[in-house]
Amino acid sequence: MILRTILSLLFLGVIVPLHAATKPNIIYILCDDLGYGDVKCLNPEGKIATPHADRLAKEGLIFTDAHTSSSVCTPTRYGLMTGRYNWRSKLQSGVLGGLSPRLIEADRLTVPALLKQHGYHTACVGKWHLGMDWVKHAGREVSELTIEKPEQVSSVDYVQPIKNGPMSVGFDYYFGIAASLDMVPYVFIENDHVTAPPTGETSYPMTLGRDDGKATRKGPVAPGFSAIGVLPALTRKAVEHIEARAANARAGKPFFLYLPLASPHTPIAPSPEWQGKSGISPYADFVMQTDATLGAILEALEKHGLAQDTLVVFTSDNGCSPMANFPELAEKGHNPSAQFRGHKADIFEAGHRVPFIVRWPAKVKAGTTSDQTICLVDLMATCAEIVGAKVPDNAGEDSVSILPALAGQAGKPLREAVVHHSINGSFSIRQGNWKLELCSGSGGWSDPKPNTPAAKALPLVQLYDLAKDAGEKTNVQAEHPEVVARLTRLLEKYIADGRSTPGAPQQNAVPIELWKDRVAGQPKRPKAAN
Ligand SMILES: [Ca+2]
Distance (Å, rounded) from C-alpha 215 to C-alpha 180? Predict the structure, then answer.
C-alpha cells in the first residue's frame, strides 16, 4: 500500500522527501593524511592493499571528486563539524596545537549538536585537534592559534578538568587525544579529563624503527601511553561503543560516532602484527592497519545487526604528507597522490582531494560511483536533510546536502562551486572543470613553495582545466581571463556574504585577506569585504 502510494506520487510528479523513515546511525571515519592514491579501489596503480575500503566501495558508493575545505588538519575539522568554510573562523592559516584553546565559536551549531537535537546519541572517539581549554598554571601561557612553543608544554595543569572540549560542541561522549599524535600532550582524554596524568616526558620517532633524527615534539606523557598503542586503543573504543549503543540503536535511538583516527599521520607506528605486512614501507603497513580499523567497525556493525541502517563514511582530512616518504613509495611503484599534483598542505588537488566512500545499504545502491564535486563541509546539510531538519541561517553557511547523490537522484551539480584553502591560507575556487588558484605556487609544502624565487617568477594566478589536465600541469590563465575574472568575483561574493549557500548574509570571524602571496614591488591586492 505504502509502496503503491509512493509510486503514484512519483507518477504525479510529487517530490518524495529524501529523509529517511528511520534515522540511520552515522559513523564518520576520518583518516589523518590518507592520500587519494592510498586506497586501492580509487587508484588501481596503487600498491597498498586496502581490502576493507574496497569492500565498503563494493557495498556502497565512491565519490571520486570529494574535497576537504583545507589541505591540513585543524581547518578541515572545523569545516566538517560546522558546515562552514574554515577560513571564516579566526584561524587563517596553519593548525592548532594540543594545548590550544577551543576554535569553534561558543554559539555555533555543530553536526553533533544538530543530531543530538534530533534524538541521536553522539560520540567522538579519536584525534580532536580543534582546541580545548586546559587550566593553565598561574602566569603561564599557551599559543592560541598555532602549535605551542616547546617551553609552553608544561604550562598546563593536566590534573584539572578540561573545559570547552568536544563535549561542549554537542558530543555526549569523548575519548581520544587532543591533537595530532606528533604533538603534546601524550595522554588519553575521556570526556573532560585525562585518563591518567602525565608523569614523564617523551617523544617518538617519526617513523617507527628509523633512527633518522626525526622525532615528534618532546612533552608530557602519561604512564602506559605509547604512540604505537593509539590506533589499537581507538579501534577498541569504537568497537566497544558500537556494542554499547547497539540495543538502543535497534530500539530506535540512533547514534552518531565521529571517529577521527590519528593514522596514517606521523608518528608512523604500525603495531607489531602489521610491521612488514605491506612489503613496501612502514607507512604502507600503517595504511593497511588503518584500513583494518575500518574492517573492525564493519564487523561490529554486522555482529550487532546494525549494518543495514548505518551510514558509514570513510574519508581523510587532507592529502598524504611528504612524511610518508614519497621517493621510498615510488621505488615500489606507489604514489599516494595518484594522478593528482602535490600533497598535504598544498592548494593543488592532492592537498585536498580525498578518498570518500559511503555505505548505507538501506539507501545507497551498492557498487556505484559519483563524480559529483562534494566537500567535507557538506555533512551538516546532509545530516539535516536526513533527519528532516532545516539548517538555520547562522549555521552551516557553506554546507550542501549530498543526500540526492547518496540516493542516486542527483543529475545536475549539487554545489555551485567549492572553495579550497592551503596551509598558508591561499585560496582556490573550483567550478565544473575550472579550478582557479589565487597564488603563484603551491601555497604549501611542494614546489614551487610560496614566496620563493621560483614562485615569484610565475603568474599571480593559476587556472587549470581539470577535465583535460587533472594533474594541473598547464596554467591557462592567460588564455581565459574571463574565467579568472568570473571565478574571482564569485569567491569575493562568497567572502563578502559570509556564506556560499542561499540564506541571510553572515559575518566572518575576522577580515579575510584573499591574496596571500604578493610579488614585491607590486601593489597590494584589494582586500575583500568582510
Ligand atoms: Ca591531517
Answer: 13
